[in-house]
Amino acid sequence: MGGSVKDVESKEELDNVVRQGAPVILHFWASWCEASKHMDQVFSHLSTDFPHAVFFRVEAEEQPVISEAYSVSAVPYFVFFKDGKTVDTMEGADPSSLANKVAKVAGSINPGEAAAPASLGMAAGPTVLETVKEFAKENGASQVESQLPSGLSDTLKIHLQKVIETQPVMLFMKGSPEEPKCGFSRKVVEILREEKVKFGSFDILLDTEVREGLKKFSNWPTFPQLYCKGELLGGCDIAIAMHESGELKEVFRDHGIETSDLNEAKETKPGSGKGGISESTGLSVTLTSRLESLINSSPVILFMKGKPDEPRCGFSRKVVEILQQEKVDFGSFDILSDDEVRQGLKVHSNWSSYPQLYIKGELIGGSDIVLEMQKSGELARVLAEKGITQKETLEDRVRNLINSSPTMLFMKGTPDAPKCGFSSKVVDALRAENVSFGSFDILTDEEVRQGLKVFSNWPTFPQLYYKGELIGGCDIIMELRNNGELKSTLSE
């Protein structure tokens, strides 16, 4: 089995090989992920360098049992086994790190020789070095960024300027106009086609140097980026605004950009295709209408495997976690429950995998793109620009109530009508000291009542707070008053 890469058919097969104790390297990948494809080339070469190790490949979405077992939420992802145990993992596309980790686990090529970095003097060496420079990493470019100089060399500046000026209208995007790999890139392509202008494009996923360099060159941190006669117009939101206001057409006209029908998208009226089939997608008008209805059923909608509280794949779980971290309400649709939607949405969105995240009807992308956007802060910005506000968590609500007044009393009942003797005593003590205070009746809101116990780590009521800090309950307040310290405590 050594010297080649084998596709794993089941978890039982994997477990049996791992138990034998030989070094095993497991690569989780996805056919739609460019980074996975590039890393798979490195992986294959490494299998030649280390014929005594077992190299397994797993299609992450097609083998959910195995993916779940190793908590895979993004690809590429690698797991390293030795002596029947998991000894290391690696997430992301880093050829050099992969080569070194394999060398460490698999040992030397020849018995008696020390393990050396696999990127040095071995079959995988050229591929490692080439991939470091050329592959596009869907999960973000943080590792590659660290390899780039903080400034731009004159050579790179000249190269970027030449690429920008390749066409009068130039779009730097994720993917190609025929196969965009993010919703924002797709939208700008649609706008340019509606404007009937010829434009060139550059897939920034295929060239990390251009991708990271252009961010610094243009002082614009995200993609797509649209240029006209060498000048940056902006990203997706600016292109949309200029298009809707008519300003984009004026800019093209002022710069002598000619329009052409070659890029015009064909409009299809419902039912104009044969048998009610849309000419643009091949989907029935009924299914198209249903898909669009689902996409617009919530401002933020996630088409996923499983449900938010029971994800059925690591990629879906990751996007759920991200949305929860961003504190936004979102709808979801389990594509495993409806094969018509599952297959139809791939065609409708021109996006071949799941999960798929939509915001206000626009496709954002899958797990890797959403993760990258969150890390860069772009996701929060997009949500804000689309008017998606963060939902208030229970902790946020409790904290806001505590800080609603400098002195705040959580009690049973109201100051004028206390519903327990302890609350009544604290109210009397505060009034005796002429202390102004706010109050909240915890009997009117069970969520706040229980949440406050957890937040304060104080199991009973009343609870008195001063400037956001817990002072205590009835006994402590009475002790402070009897010692003559209550007034001073609440005025520090």
Summarize the structure.
One of its GO terms (molecular function) is iron-sulfur cluster binding. By secondary structure, the chain is of the alpha/beta class.
What does this molecule look like?
A hairpin with a 2-residue loop joins strand 4 and strand 5 (85-91). The protein is globular, with a radius of gyration of 30 Å. 42% of the residues lie in helices and 18% in strands. Helix 13 runs parallel beside helix 15 (367-376) and helix 18 runs parallel beside helix 20 (474-482). With 492 residues, it is of the alpha/beta class. The chain starts with a strand and ends with a helix. The protein has four domains: 5-134, Glutaredoxin (3-Layer(aba) Sandwich); 146-263, Glutaredoxin (3-Layer(aba) Sandwich), CATH 3.40.30; 274-385, 3-Layer(aba) Sandwich (Glutaredoxin); 395-489, Glutaredoxin. A five-stranded mixed beta sheet has the order 1-3-2-4-5, sandwiched between helices. It has a four-stranded mixed beta sheet with strand order 7-6-8-9.
